[in-house]
Amino acid sequence: MDYATWKDHAASTLAVRHGIRSNRIPEREWKRLYIIKSSPEEAAAQAHNFYLNTRPAAERTHHRREISKTRMAQTPRERLHDTITKKKPGRATVLETSARPPRAGRQQRDRHG
Q1: What does the pLDDT average to over 21-44?
Q2: Same domain, 54 and 89
Q3: Which of 7, 16, 88, 98 is the most buried (most CB within 10 A)?
């Protein structure tokens, strides 16, 4: 099977199975799949994977992070404060670390400059 016939068959399989036009896949990818002797069906599946990997994660997984109503009602400043004050086990928050006095070694270096 020559390249043009193979690509037409793979492109029609891609369109029927996954609803993706063949021009959404770069020509170099089609050529790579032809060179490694993929069948048109295998090439369509691999082209589909290639297409998905070029899309943002939300489109690939068809999942979007749900944001609660209270989160949506908060202002950006309130959300930032919640993020900063969220404490992980065994770690100090950003606000706690910024409130600490500087270490003695740094003070001496600053004085002797």
Answers
A1: 94
A2: no
A3: 7
